[in-house]
Amino acid sequence: MDQFIIHGGQKLEGEISISGAKNSALPILCASLLNGTSNIIHNIPQLRDIQTIKKLLISLGCKWERDDKTVYLDSTNISTMQAPYDLVKTMRASVLVLGPLAARFGYARLSLPGGCAIGARPINLHLDALRKMGAEITLSSGYVEVKVKKLKGARIYLDIPTVTGTENIMMAAVLADGETVIENAAMEPEITDLANVLVKMGAKIKGQGTDSMIIKGVKTLRGFKHTVIPDRIEAGTFLIAGVITKGKVVLRNADPAQLYALIGKLRNAGANIKINKELITISANDKLRCVDIKTLPYPGFATDMQAQFMALMAVSDGLCVITETIFENRFMHVSELCRMGANIRIEGAHAIVTGVKKLSGAPVMATDLRASACLVLAGLVAEGETRIQRVYHIDRGYVRIEEKLRALGADIIRAKSAH
Ligand code: EPZ
């Protein structure tokens, strides 16, 4: 397994280009199952999770070619509708094949995704919606089976605006008989990106990007060409890298409209942020101030940015409360930050952070994707050497992060772990 070795204290300066969004590429690649023809998707990031969905889609019968950031995906010959345990267990987003397979074939069998480090993450809302659309759902020996002659449109209210749940329902509804209404739908930019792809295929969708979507089923769908939107979480992570090291970082290809909650909070904390067409520039004259954050569904502050923001608050002035409302166990990074000298106390869903003068480098362990990013950010500013074990977590969501950071002046290398 690989580790990162970081020597903190370097100011990050320069320009980086933001890669395509992982959480947009994954549903769009699964949506390609719907049309039974060939599709071209540009700006696909080179990530472990993309490798995983590639294996899954090929195992179902898809043809997959890749040329740099473009994937040519052909779903003409689907030979099986089963997603096996050994693939699903490595990535929960595999659940995104349920909707398209049920819509096109009336059948899907998926190993139930287990929980993960950040929470139980059930898929009850996905399954309740498919049931309402006429599917028969059976759970046995760790698998979920979806069977239906033909899905029919339904009015679905989501107790929680689940992101992949909304995406599964969208992909189920586009070929269903009649109209589907999704209320309390997720509004993330990745939802709108998927809707744009489905519309390119010939789907009839209204209200994407709002909490209420109306989808009229159609008979068939055609092939599409699409360029995936930029990754707002990678962009946010690099904004924090620039400001935590008191450097000056310019992001190219980022979309500021996706980042208003984070940009607003960074400005309240004292960061200088300039936005023009497709460049975002961040810098900080001196220490930032601690500001409270509360994670919420989009357009609120993204839960996927909580850990990274906490690293910044750990070395800012004052005290703040960080409240995590989306996942029940998304403070795994706190104990590792405290080992680096941070002063953080957890009270239920709240982390009370008192800024300290400095962090000290230490050997730490990555537990999940965004917690790993948090530890990298802390390592960039800590005094001395930080070794982060199990960086395969970070490779799931960031394209060669150590190379991008080194290009900005960070002292970070990837090395084989001693054990
Ligand atoms: C998506 O996960 C993202 N993954 C996550 O990003 C992100 O953290 C999350 O949305 C929230 O924004 C992808 O898009 C591939 P949810 P998802 O369903 O869809 C509960 C990353 O770092 N819930 O919106 O799985 C659930 O337990 C990853 O890239 C149910 O109870 O998240 C959670 O508490 C991590 N029943 C809350 O809703 C359900 O049926 C939000 O989950 C579905 C969800």
From TrEMBL:
Residues 7-405 form the Enolpyruvate transferase domain. Pathway: Cell wall biogenesis; peptidoglycan biosynthesis. The keyword Amino-acid biosynthesis does not apply. It comes from the Bacteria. Phosphoenolpyruvate binds at residues 22-23. Pfam families: EPSP_synthase (PF00275). InterPro entries: Enolpyruvate_Tfrase_dom, Enolpyruvate_Tfrase_sf, MurA_subfamily, RNA3'P_cycl/enolpyr_Trfase_a/b, UDP_GlcNAc_COvinyl_MurA. It is an enzyme of class 2 (transferase). Cell wall formation. Adds enolpyruvyl to UDP-N-acetylglucosamine. Belongs to the EPSP synthase family. MurA subfamily. This is UDP-N-acetylglucosamine 1-carboxyvinyltransferase. It comes from candidate division CSSED10-310 bacterium.
